[in-house]
Amino acid sequence: MxxxxxxxxxxxxxxxxxxxxxxxxxxxxKGNANKQAVIEAIQARxxxxxxxxxxxxIAILLWAEDNGSALG
Length: 72
Prior knowledge:
It is built from 4 helices and no strands. The chain is mainly alpha-helical.
């Protein structure tokens, strides 16, 4: 985390921390959803994630888009 933060600040890349529960609640409706529930919620939105990591990344992107993130 420290390396990522330092890199982003050094390169003037905006970043924002978002709690895991916030992303899970956004995508599944349940803040303590398991990995399979996140994958299924992403699939229900028309995506085909290769694994739970890709499903998480898509969920974060969708959250940022929906919440008018200042990230870009």
